[in-house]
Specification:
With 347 residues, the chain is α+β, with helices and mostly antiparallel strands. The protein folds into 2 domains: 110 residues, Barwin-like endoglucanases, CATH 2.40.40.10; 143 residues, endopeptidase fold (from Nostoc punctiforme) (Alpha-Beta Complex). 22% of the residues lie in helices and 21% in strands. The chain has a 6-stranded mixed barrel. It has a 6-stranded antiparallel sheet with strand order 13-18-14-15-16-17. A hairpin with a 4-residue loop joins β14 and β15. The longest helix is centred in the N-terminal third of the chain and has 35 residues. It is elongated. The chain starts with a helix and ends with a strand.
């Protein structure tokens, strides 16, 4: 028995000696894969951090990209998973992640909107974006992107803290009810919502609206939704077939109002016509939202700012003459019809 045990032990030791190099190689490859291939959670979570000292300093070369999504423009989904389709307003830049960390915010001067206070999220990458070069996302179309061309810009760090002029994630992604994304991280900056310290909303020079920082979450959701419709056009009857949870390229007056209400969590999933909106919610003006409706037209005020598809030559704001649902600056409520005023319960 001793001889048999000794023989077995010797054989086992010999096998281990033969297998040792193979096991070492497998372990080495496992380490390499772990280092080079990040987990799905790491690839979809975008940490929002401040730039480190010296990062991004100096002069940069800047181009512009965006819809229509085709060819080198990509498909509208950024490298960090942000959905910019079909032409979602967002202040965002594509960077070389070896030079600028994804998730940081930057002031870009000059920029296509002429506002040095805008904070751009480093949220995308590109095959041609190497070294000290950035690509500025411009949702206003190919003509605007080509008009920008190639320019030299200066980058300086910006804080993503939600103060006036700084951008935050859209409210519906940041609320607890939205939960976490598939990777288990909190909702990131899918689309920006400008905030203001004023008691009422403000129409910004680019035509988007800034929400009062102290407004209820439902109101911030509505203003973010109105901003998303900034590139939509007006088509009679549009927006009434698909569910309101899907963004459409065109809306009419009542479907646009329905879309904004839906985003605030106070409306169903399908648009009503203007006659139906005469019976929506509670009668009279609301504290935050007032809907004006009759059998021919519907519009609304959200936090004191008007959202309407009609401009009729009297819109005094930056969206004057623009077709489609926009934030409007009218001197008064139209007097060509009698309006039924309604508001969402509690708002």
């Amino acid at each position: 028995m001793r001889d048999s045990n000794s023989t077995a032990t010797a054989v086992f030791a010999a096998l281990l000696a033969l297998l040792a190099p193979v096991l070492a190689l497998i372990a080495f490859l496992a380490v390499i894969v772990t280092l080079l291939v990040p987990s799905s959670k790491a690839s979809t979570c975008l940490p929002i951090t401040m730039p480190v000292a010296g990062e991004g300093s100096g002069e940069w070369l800047a181009t512009a990209y965006g819809p229509p999504w085709e060819g080198i423009q990509g498909d509208g989904i950024t490298a960090t998973g942000i959905d910019l389709r079909p032409a979602k307003p967002a202040y965002l830049i594509a960077v070389d992640p070896n030079v600028i960390r994804l998730g940081t915010y930057w002031h870009v001067v000059p920029n296509p909107w002429g506002n040095p206070n805008l904070a751009f999220l480093a949220g995308d990458t590109g095959g041609a974006i190497i070294g000290k070069r950035i690509d500025i996302y411009d949702w206003e179309g190919r003509a605007a992107q080509q008009a920008w061309g190639v320019r030299h810009v200066t980058l300086t760090p910006a804080a993503g803290n939600g103060s006036a002029g700084i951008l935050e994630p859209t409210p519906e992604l940041a609320t607890p009810t939205a939960g976490e994304n598939e990777a288990g991280c909190a909702g990131e900056a899918e689309g920006p919502l400008p905030l203001t310290t004023a008691q009422t909303a403000r129409i910004l020079p680019d035509g988007l609206a800034a929400a009062p920082s102290e407004a209820p979450q439902a109101i911030k959701g509505m203003i973010a939704a109105g901003n998303r419709l900034h590139s939509a056009t007006y088509v009679y009857g549009a927006g009434h077939g698909p569910p309101l949870s899907t963004l459409q390229p065109a809306y009419d007056c009542s479907s646009a109002v329905s879309y904004v209400l839906h985003a605030g969590g106070v409306f169903g999933n399908y648009a009503w016509d203007s006659s139906q909106l005469e019976h929506y919610g509670e009668p009279g003006p609301g504290k935050w939202v007032t809907i004006y409706a009759n059998s021919e037209h519907a519009f609304m005020y959200v936090a004191g700012v008007r959202f309407d598809t009609a401009w009729e030559g009297i819109d005094e704001g930056p969206n004057q003459g623009e077709n489609g649902p926009r934030w409007r600056a009218y001197p008064e409520v139209p007097k060509w019809a009698t309006w039924v005023l309604r508001h969402p319960p509690g708002l």
